[in-house]
Design brief:
Helix content: 25-40%
Strand order of the largest sheet: 11-12-13-18-19-22
GO molecular function: endopeptidase activity; serine-type peptidase activity
CATH superfamily of one domain: 2-enoyl-CoA Hydratase, Chain A, domain 1
CATH architecture of one domain: Alpha-Beta Complex
CATH class of one domain: Alpha Beta
Radius of gyration: 23 Å
Pfam families: Peptidase_S41
Keywords: Membrane, Transmembrane, Transmembrane helix
InterPro entries: ClpP/crotonase-like_dom_sf (IPR029045), Tail-specific_protease (IPR005151)
Number of strands: 22
Strand content: 15-25%
Organism: Caldisalinibacter kiritimatiensis
Structural class: alpha+beta
CATH topology of one domain: 2-enoyl-CoA Hydratase, Chain A, domain 1
Distance between the termini: 47 Å
Number of helices: 13
């Protein structure tokens, strides 16, 4: 039993570290640095020979086959078909940037959002001014531009409908559900390499058909230089508000950073909740794409529960995992049983909360943020309100990192499968809220918060 617990602790720590790395690289930097000994990637406009591409494709296919838990018994028929088509495409000289999409389709066939390949775009790559928000009922413009108006509905991008674009994006965005394809797709649909891959550019313009009020209009958006804006590093990633009138405290967490600031903010939040005798608290992870899963345990220290069930896991051993992690085993598969976590409740009993708990989710809720919501739901600690998440409750993760020999593309592959606490709720390709509340374009135009408004309505009932 002690061995099992040690393995679980190790697996949890590993997930924490890898989730943090994945979040930093993929969502913060949007590029890959080379502190791990990786060489620079070839420029997207460089040409590759058939032999070079075949060597790189062989390497990617072999790594996926040898490392990922999903391929333990080999590739599926669907995956084999994607791989066969990839080899057919590399029958002549090709640009590095185009070859990226060939490899990406192979990697995306696993439908694992943590298994992905990165591309360093050229400084010469351009964008179009198309501020998209992709809602449940379609694509809209979220802010005014020279040619577009906030609230315009996008009907077609160069004769491709929302459904057409989703089908194409699913091939090149590693995802477990359409929510995540939309989250990642809206940012990719403005970038020149992706626009070219999708066949949306004509004479350096992208034609977009929109609906404004009762009229249908067509606009031509030119490719323009990408002016990278610096992120506002002072933006609050953790905060809270207390609504005494409705007896509601909302704890807003936009990234799962487990540090002193987080711990202090959680403590201050529950001090105010106790001071004003608040009966309802909600954790808002709608804009949270992950990080360190220890934020969950820290928050639950203030909830009056004795224990809770956490995730269990399956690990696939491989030569590559042994080399990167030091495992003694180089093959095989092992499952670790789930265990109850003893809740290390805060010593100040006045801060222990025993009222109603909610967690607010959206398609941007991913990785450790999704983990937060799943633990709440599967242990009946709180109700989930909002929109379906961008991550499966039981999903893959804990990644190994590789680089193709010729093109220099860095990619990562999961070696573990994380299993949710309550497997009776599976299979699910996302976490479905107990109370579904979708954001509409009218909410955005009028700056309303439909999820919090619904929560206040529920409380007052």
């Amino acid at each position: 039993m002690n061995r099992i617990i040690k393995h679980l602790v190790f697996a949890t720590i590993t997930f924490i570290l890898i989730s943090t790395v994945v979040y930093y690289f993929f969502f913060k930097k949007h590029n890959v640095n080379y502190e791990y000994g990786f060489k620079p990637q070839m420029a997207p406009n460089r040409l590759m020979t058939v032999e070079q591409m075949k060597e790189d494709l062989d390497y990617v296919v072999n790594v996926l086959r040898d490392v990922h838990p999903k391929t333990y018994n080999g590739f599926s028929n669907e995956q084999n078909l994607v791989i066969e088509n990839a080899y057919k495409k590399i029958n002549k000289i090709m640009k590095v940037g185009d070859f990226y999409f060939v490899l990406n389709e192979v990697i995306c066939s696993l439908k694992d959002a943590h298994t992905m390949i990165f591309i360093e775009l050229s400084k010469d790559d351009r964008i179009i001014d198309l501020p998209i928000v992709w809602l449940n009922d379609g694509m809209y413009i979220k802010e005014d531009t020279e040619q577009l108006k906030k609230g315009d509905k996008i009907l077609f991008i160069r004769q491709k409908s929302e459904e057409d674009l989703l089908k194409e994006l699913e091939k090149i965005i590693p995802a477990e559900n359409q929510q995540w394809v939309k989250v990642r797709g809206k940012s990719n649909l403005i970038k020149e390499p992706f626009l070219r891959y999708l066949g949306l550019i004509e004479n350096d313009y992208v034609n977009v058909k929109i609906q404004r009020d009762e009229k249908e209009l067509e606009v031509q958006l030119p490719l323009i230089k990408n002016k990278k804006s610096k992120q506002n590093m002072t933006e609050e990633w953790v905060s809270y508000s207390v609504d005494k009138e409705n007896s509601l405290g909302v704890f807003k967490l936009d990234t799962c950073n487990y540090d002193e600031k987080y711990k202090t903010t959680v403590a201050n939040f529950f001090k105010e909740v106790s001071k004003y005798n608040i009966k309802n608290v909600a954790v808002d992870v709608r804009n949270n794409s992950g990080g360190d899963s220890r934020v969950v345990d820290e928050f639950l220290r203030y909830i009056d529960i004795d224990n809770y069930l956490s995730f269990s896991g399956d690990i696939r051993y491989s030569k590559q995992a042994s080399e990167q992690r030091g495992y003694s085993r180089k093959s095989g598969y092992k499952s670790y049983r789930k265990q109850f976590i003893n809740n290390k409740k805060v010593l100040n009993k006045e801060l222990l909360f025993d009222g109603n708990v909610y967690i607010i989710t959206s398609p941007r809720t991913f990785s450790s943020a999704n983990w937060f919501a799943v633990i709440m739901k599967d242990n009946n600690i709180g109700k989930v309100i909002g929109e379906p998440t961008g991550n499966q409750p039981s999903s893959y993760g804990d990644v190994l990192r590789f680089q193709t020999h010729n093109s220099g593309f860095v990619f990562q592959v999961s070696l573990k499968r994380w299993v949710r606490p309550n497997t009776d709720n599976d299979p699910e390709n996302c976490l479905h809220p107990d109370i579904e509340v979708y954001t509409t374009i009218e909410d955005i135009i009028n700056e309303r918060d439909p999820q919090v408004e619904k929560l206040i309505e529920i409380i007052n009932e």
